[in-house]
């Protein structure tokens, strides 16, 4: 008898096409979700990173300017110096063609060059080379307008090479000390020689009606005068805060430094007090006949500087993230400088020179800085 064994049939099943397509679809959806999550995270990370960089740039720039403005006027706050309405200056540049008056010479602690309605301001801070100052002394004899010898009550406060000033009745003459005589009749000399570029020949003094000074006029050594000007400049296509250092007496630039990048607006105002007061009661733009170029009396009323720096993120967003801002000054194309009043409107901010300004984020840094050297002078 044949015995037939039947072997069970084994079926091998794989993945069907439908199952494969379903799996691929689920995988693609999961991958898409992960990519979107990563893209969102990366976008937030970049916004945070560049936003932090903008904050650092703005903060460092503000701290630098604040420290500089606090020291403005060091060595230049003698009441007689602050009363100068007209400076008589001369500079021989050494070209052999003779010299001329120094243009726009000023010893004001701080000057603002207004950038008008849609421009950025420039801020210039001045200080003397003798930060502790030197004692003002008096002339003991009347000096003619073309004199090179000045008889003084105490010559020991002067050094050869010092930039010095003689002041009386609002007239102020700038000179270089070439000799100091401490015996006999004490005097200083300001001869028109090499190494004394601010001492003119007698013919220049006569032609330009330099004043004479009577006994009792004040003479003071200021050593030198340094001016640092803060302004915005495009560096490799990026708006940056720049500081230029200059020697006022030689009208020459000594150095230029980029302090911070992505600074898109710099605006400032004078804080002014009534005459013979130290309390600020108004904030004004450096414009118009009064504050565009303040005379000595008005310059003494400037007791503080209020400024704003606006830093921009380096990342351009995909859509608009910044809009206009309205304050008492009007409609700002960008963030407002500060909360103002109708009596003291803030400077207008206008970033619209960049057509994509709405697609950037901005950080605003503003502060009020008292001019302590002017306040301590009690003028």
Write the layout of secondary structure elements.
Elements: H1 17-70, H2 79-82, E1 86-88, E2 110-113, E3 122-128, E4 137-138, E5 149-151, E6 163-168, E7 171-176, E8 179-181, E9 187-189, H3 202-207, E10 218-223, E11 225-235, E12 238-247, E13 252-261, E14 263-272, E15 282-284, H4 288-291, H5 296-299, E16 302-312, E17 325-327, E18 330-332, E19 362-370, H6 372-377
Explained architecture:
It comes from Noviherbaspirillum humi. InterPro entries: N_methyl_site, PilW. The chain crosses the membrane at residues 20-39. This is Type IV pilus assembly protein PilW. Keywords: Membrane, Transmembrane, Transmembrane helix. Helix content is 21%, strand content 30%. With 379 residues, the chain is an alpha+beta fold. It has a domain at 84-223. It has a five-stranded mixed β-sheet, with no helix packed on it. A five-stranded antiparallel β-sheet has the order 2-3-11-12-13, with helices on one face. A four-stranded antiparallel β-sheet has the order 15-14-16-19. It is elongated. The N and C termini lie far apart (137 Å).
């Amino acid at each position: 008898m044949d015995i037939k064994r039947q072997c069970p049939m084994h079926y091998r099943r794989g993945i069907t096409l439908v199952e494969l397509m379903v799996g691929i679809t689920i995988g693609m959806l999961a991958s898409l979700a992960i990519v979107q999550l990563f893209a969102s995270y990366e976008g937030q990370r970049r916004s945070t990173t560049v936003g932090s960089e903008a904050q650092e740039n703005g903060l460092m720039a503000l701290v630098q300017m604040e420290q500089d403005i606090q020291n403005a006027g060091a060595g230049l706050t003698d009441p007689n110096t602050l009363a100068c309405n007209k400076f008589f200056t001369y500079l021989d540049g050494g070209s052999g063609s003779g010299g001329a008056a120094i243009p726009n010479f000023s010893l004001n602690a701080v000057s603002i060059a207004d950038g008008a309605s849609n421009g950025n301001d420039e801020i210039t801070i001045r200080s003397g080379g003798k930060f502790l100052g030197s004692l003002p002394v008096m002339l003991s004899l009347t000096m003619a307008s073309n004199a090179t010898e000045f008889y003084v009550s105490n010559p020991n406060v002067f050094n050869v090479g010092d930039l010095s000033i003689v002041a009386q009745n609002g007239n102020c003459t700038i000179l270089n000390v070439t000799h100091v005589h401490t015996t006999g009749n004490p005097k200083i000399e300001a001869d028109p020689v090499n190494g004394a570029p601010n001492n003119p020949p007698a013919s220049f003094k006569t032609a330009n009606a330099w004043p004479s000074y009577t006994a009792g006029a004040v003479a003071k050594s200021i050593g030198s005068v340094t001016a640092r000007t803060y302004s915005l400049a495009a560096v490799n296509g990026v708006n940056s805060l720049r500081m230029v250092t200059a020697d006022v007496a030689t009208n020459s630039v000594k150095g230029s430094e980029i302090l911070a990048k992505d600074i898109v607006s710099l605006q400032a105002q004078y804080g002014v007090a009534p005459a013979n007061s130290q309390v600020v009661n108004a904030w004004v733009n450096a414009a118009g006949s009064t504050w565009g170029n303040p005379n000595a009396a008005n310059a003494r009323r400037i007791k503080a500087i209020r400024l704003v720096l606006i830093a921009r993120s380096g990342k351009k967003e995909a859509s608009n993230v910044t809009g206009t801002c309205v304050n008492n000054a009007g409609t700002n194309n960008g963030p407002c400088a500060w909360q103002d009043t109708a009596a003291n409107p803030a400077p207008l901010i206008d970033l619209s020179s960049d057509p994509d300004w709405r697609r950037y984020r901005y950080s605003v840094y503003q502060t009020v800085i008292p001019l302590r050297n002017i306040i301590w002078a009690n003028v």
